Amino acid sequence: MTENFSTTQTTAESPVRKFRRSRENAMIAGVCAGTAKGLNVDATILRVLLVAATLLGFGTGIVVYLVCWVLVPQE
Q1: Cα 46 from Cα 4, distance rounded (Å)
Q2: How far apart are CA 52 and CA 26, in angstroms?
Q3: Residue 39, CA distances (Å) to 35, 60, 67 in order
Q4: Looking at residue 40, what DSSP letter applies?
Q5: Residue 30 region, left (φ>0) first, then alpha (ψ -120 to 50), else beta?
Q6: Taking each helix axis from N to C terminus, what angle separates 60-71 and 43-56, rounded to the nearest 10 degrees?
Q7: Which residues contact 31 (CB under 8 A, 6 or more apart)?
Q8: Which distant-in-sequence residues (6+ apart) come within 8 Å of 30 by Cβ?
Q9: Where residue 25 falls among pLDDT bands split at 50, 70, 90?
Q10: pLDDT (tens digit per residue) in 32-74
Q11: What predicted TM-score, i.e. pTM, was given to this entire model?
Q12: Residue 46 burial (CB < 10 Å; 0-12/13-18/19+)?
């Protein structure tokens, strides 16, 4: 028994979201603002979560922020 599988491609491609640091809503380097823009959430929520991750995770949040600051390009 042979099944025929076909993949259909839509003519309109889904937009690709790029992870960039924001210049508009930046407080330090724009990492939280850029992430919030990509996730469609408020940047303040991500900033509070980052501070909580830094305090409760023995500095893990700040390490992640610094890595993103260095690696993620600015828009």
Answers
A1: 46
A2: 19
A3: 6, 21, 19
A4: T
A5: left
A6: 130
A7: 21, 65, 68, 69, 72
A8: 21, 22, 23, 74
A9: confident
A10: 999 999 999 999 999 999 999 999 999 999 999 999 999 999 9
A11: 0.72
A12: middle
